[in-house]
Write a structure and sequence with these properties.
Length: 98
């Protein structure tokens, strides 16, 4: 049976952590489309979407208070465009089964 794009995305995230950029490449989507799918997934999965905040490779700044799910373009602290992440994963069955 063929999986929908969103099911494929959920399955990838259930198996490990992926950055928005990884997901865009793997699923042949634009960063904007990935953000839309992640926003929808965050709502439909009720808090099971785990977000590891983006980080600046240059100065180590962590984007903790960021609400949006796309990748930040530029670091507000050092102004470099060397931002990694954010990374996403999906926690399944609230830890009852592994
Ligand atoms: Zn920085």
């Amino acid at each position: 049976m063929e999986l929908t794009l969103r099911q494929t995305l959920a399955r990838m995230l259930a198996h490990g952590q992926h950055s928005a950029l990884d997901l865009a490449r793997a699923l042949l989507l634009t960063p904007r489309e990935v953000e839309d799918h992640l926003t929808h997934l965050a709502r439909s999965q009720r808090g099971r979407l785990r977000v590891e905040p983006a980080r600046c490779r240059n100065c180590g700044h962590v984007f903790r208070d960021r609400r949006r799910l796309d990748a930040p373009g530029r670091c507000p602290r050092c102004r470099q465009e060397m931002v990694d992440g954010p990374w996403f994963s999906l926690a399944l069955d609230s830890g009852v089964r592994k």
